[in-house]
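Input set for joint prediction.
Command: fold jointly, output tokens.
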Amino acid sequence: MNAGSSTNRGTGGYRYRTADILLVGAIAAVGGVVSAYVIVPWAKFIEGLLGPFGAVFDNPFFIFWPIVAALLICKPGVGVVTSVLTGAVEVLVGSADGSIVLIVTLLQGLGVELGFLIFRYRATLPAAIAAGAGAGLGASIALLYVFGFFQLGTAVQIPFILALMAGDAIIGGLLAWAIAQGVIRTGVWGGGGAYQRVDRQS
Amino acid sequence: MIFVYRPGDSFLHRADSISKLVWLITAGAFVLVAGQWQVSATVFVAVLLSGIFLGRLDASELLRRMIPLWIIALWLFCLFSVLYPEGTDPVLKIGPLSVTGEGISYGLAIAFRVLTLGSSALIFAATTDPRRLVNELISVLKLPYRLAYAFYSALRFLPLLHNEARTILDARAIRGQGYPAKGVAERLALLRGLTVSLLAGAIRRVQITAVAMDSRGFGAYPTRTEIEDVHRPAGGIVFAAVWVVALVGYVIVFVVFGDHSFLRTPVGT
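tokens >
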């Protein structure tokens, strides 16, 4: 059940090609644009109602960008770099969450990386789900600390961590998988593009 | 989507990005380390004053942009005021819930922490040219330029994708394809449709750009030349140094040799 033709690594093995670097930047930019138009308006509504606990419901829609990047590129570091870059773009375009975004995106990027590492960077559905769970774990650790929830005891902490991991794994992982599949079906990445033709000849 | 950055001639606009990055990290570390709400409140006020006076930012716009943060901060303050598990000093009783002094202190500390983390990043974004930030990350912090180029490409694609997103959404609206979306299913369909369309367009652009860059020898040498020189005014470096010294001083005087809590809660304050 591979997302791409093989592992989408191209001829460079684990070395980043120029197209990979640019794609990471493009996904971070798409993440910023889509988040602003589609996700942020109702995410803020949820957070207004539920406070920081609203992250359980809206976080899956923020974490799938690095998973999409890792599914398309399949190289170590892509998850964490895309996640941090998406956070940096969010801050530069004026996200009200500020530095919290940078802390959360770093930890959830490491979680995505861990998920793909377990599956040896193969673009599979289980890897996407594991990466989602890892992102949820990273985000929950960051939020527990930043919002001071570690004082509320395990009765609040453990359900919060498990809910974020489950939501990010199921919604975030499946959404990332569906989007990566949609992109691959368009034929622009993973074989048919001009860059791949030049890359194979080199 | 538009960058928050607006060109200006204030102290913070002239200061180099790395010094402001150090300031951003130090202000964040301050409120993450400090347990006492008074410390977090002082840092928050100092950050706001830096933005208003040193960055010449419009105070009303800054506070308006922080509305989601105010809501979260208020939420956290109320939550910890009544749910703080180690509270022993009841101030007010609301049915079965009692508001404790310790809970109020902890709630205030966390609320000011959230406000500081948000406002400092807003001020950083409003006074920092993203291109200058990337240039200085490469030349001052020695970030590999191939990696930094991912940041450049994000900045470059952002306005293009912004226009493309508007076109796609307008086209969907004309055809009645769920924009503006109603309900969960329509929102998910819109999210997937918009993302796949934008990513497919972006990938086409990426491939053409990558061929052009490779043919011009991008990444062939360990360093690359820059059009813009990097200037680091002394004022910016001093500004960052003052914050770092204040943080280190606070930790040594009040945490190591004093009675302030470190990475813990302000119980009993």
